[in-house]
Amino acid sequence: MYKKISVIGISILIKLIIFHLYIGMKDQFWMITLKNFFLILALYSLLFLVKEDRRKRSFFIVHFLFSLLLFIDAVYYSNFFTLVPVHSLYQIGQIGTVSDSVWYYLRPKYLLFFVDFIVIFLYERWNHRDQEFQMLNITKKWKKTVALISLSFIIGIMGISQQIVAESHGLYTPYNLGVLSYHMYDVAQFVTKPEIQPQKIEKVIEDIPKVQEQVKGFGMAANRNVIVIQAESLQGFVLNKTVAGQEITPFLNRLLQEDTIYFSRYYEQVGWGNTSDAEFISQNGFYPSSGLYSYKEYEKNHFQALPMLLKEQGYKTLVFHGNEPDFWNRKTIYPKQGWDHFISLDELEADERIGVGLSDRSLFRQAIPILKDQNSPFYSFFVTLTSHHPFMLDEKYCDLKLPKEYEGTILGGYLQSVHYFDQALEKFVEDLKSNNLYEDTVIILYGDHKAFRMEDEEQEELLTHFLGKPYEEDEMYRIPLMVHIPGKPIQEEITRVGGQVDFFPTVANLVGISIPLDSIVGKDLLQAEKGFAVLQPHTGRGSFIDDEKIFILGRDGRFENSKAWNLKTGVPVSLEECREGYEQAIAEVTTSEYILKHDLIPRVWKEGLKKVFTNKKVHTEIQ
Ligand code: GP9
Ligand code: MN
Questions:
Q1: How far away, in angstroms, is 31 Cα from ligand 1 center?
Q2: Ligand 1 test: best mutation among 232, 344, 346, most atoms within 8 Å of CB?
Q3: What's the longest Cα–Cα distance across the chain?
Q4: What is the pLDDT of residues 301-350, one digit of tens each?
Q5: What is the reported pTM?
Q6: Peptide bond into 390 cis (omega under 30)
Q7: How far is the CA of 232 from the centre of ligand 2 (A)?
Q8: Hey, how many other C-beta atoms are within 10 angstroms of the C-beta on 2?
Q9: What domains are defined for the chain?
């Protein structure tokens, strides 16, 4: 029997080693792996507490669950490059809609995590050696001792995890904790919901622009309808780029030449909520939740979102999205954000479905009569879908002639779907024109988040080859933002670095609404004297991009293990030069999260950040 226990122990250790190698753990590999190994042994030894006749079955259940966890983690990791967080339970209902993406990442090799389970199970079945499990019978006193030792061990490891996370400024990842400790810590966080500690708020306050009135561009798009298009997975590199002599986005490129301000160094800042976080950040001017998708985490909050502001000015507010209305909890949260009318698959005719939902062409086509029907200025928000991962478009929608090397690749599919989006948008703009909706409208467009991960070897290779330069964070997070104001000769490329959090103040300025400068975290990119974009939770709190450099916090959350380089030359930058930006990034994110966790947006709008945070009550809460 003891031989068998050793075999099980060894198979657990091998699985852990393979898993940690698979996720690319390097620093402290053996230390973390062994710590997790002993943690698992401690958990397994609690099986002694189970009655003898049920012990064997319990062992198989536990061992199966452990194998299943590694399997699910491996699949999840291949897309998100972290392990399944416990809060993803909230998203279980969404799996059906994105099943194409799930299938894309399911690889038979991950089934290897079940091999030892199957072997042990079959061996036991054929040999019927139940009595061996019963041999592991120990007296009650020993049971208690084993349980006590195991529990103390588990608590001890959790204590060590707590310390590691504290040293990493709250960042817990599989890289600093290891697979099982990560899950246990994640569950503990989820259950206890610890308080956010805003740090160095004075840095955020100092950073508020001193100018009291917006000058550049103020009201440039006033008295017009506002159409905002949030384009699915639209990255910056596709603009003005060709493939085999064909423009990928000919219409967007044309738009850039005509009455358009183009923010070419604009970065995504989404967290767990992907598309929905892009919406949340842009419309609110605050960062997303670091623990859960923002539309869920803050569903009970009070807001002062951009649609609310425009509504006060007499705009009708409408959202168009060709998916089920409760996806990402939109149906619940939209009214609280000031959206009067949510036109989803509940109202739209599902006459052409591509991938996740209604095709962009159909969405735009069906929107025209609705927009035409509005008898006052409108603020309408389009969330497109066709260019969604895994970018598998039916041939009849693929108009680009791709070179052989990209055919059948994920990049090839992406280029086709972005090209499709570009065509759909062109048609939409034509329809706006022929329905007299164009001249008096401002069209604002941005990408929601990345399509490709540099951590994915295949994608990284494809992109590096396609771009002719290494595909790294600065390109991965870059998305386009463009503001097209028909009839205003304003072609300009703004290279000031900004992020989605800056959308709200920038747009408010353009449409001519003054907002108190210290009411949100974002900055008006037309006035900003220096560029700064905080990268969001998956990069590690403190990562940022400014006008010169990019700083990426170490995967284990440690400053000294970070990397930084000059954006123009690619030459490494000393980490000390990044300390100020790092502290600024942490300050902004923690302040923003504190405000949201305490539902303080209305108060911040009324009293200003400075007053709220120097106010005694909030201050004591912070201590
Ligand atoms: C679903 C759509 C896609 O409604 O917004 O979301 P994503 O998977 O990109 O977060
Ligand atoms: Mn998306």
A1: 38
A2: 232
A3: 87
A4: 999 999 999 999 999 999 999 999 999 999 999 999 999 999 999 999 99
A5: 0.92
A6: yes
A7: 5
A8: 9
A9: 2-192 (no CATH), 224-530 (3.40.720.10)
